[in-house]
Amino acid sequence: xxxxxxxxxxxxxxxxxxxxxxxxxxxxxxxxxxxxxxxxxxxxxxxxxxxxxxxxxxxxxxxxxxxxxxxxxxxxxxxxxxxxxxxxxxxxxxxxxxxxxxxxxxxxxxxxxxxxxxxxxxxxxxxxxxxxxxx
Length: 135
Known about the structure:
two-stranded antiparallel sheet; mainly alpha
C-alpha cells in the first residue's frame, strides 16, 4: 500500500513538473511612440539581460528545500494519524518528495514572474508606455 502511495505521489509530482515547463512568457505590450523599432530592440535586449540576473535556479532550490521541510512535517502528522509510527515515516518521505517538487515549481514560477516584472519596469524606466506592467 505504501509503495502505491509513493508511486502516486511521484507520478503527480512528475506530471506537475512537466506541466510547469509549458509556461509561456508573453512579450510586454509596449507603445513605441517616439521610438524606432531598432531603438526598442536595443532597449529590449538590454532589459532582457538585466531581467536574466534574477536567479531562477536559486529561487527553485530554496523553495524546494522549504517545501520538502514543510511537506515532511505535514506528511509525518498525516501518516501518524493514519498508521502510527510506520505511517509517520512513510508520510515524511512522501511529504518531503511532494513538498520539494511543488516548492521547486513554485520557486521557478515566482522567479519567472519577477523576471517579467523587472523587464517591464526596465522598459518603463527607459521611457516606454508598458501597458501590461504591474504598478
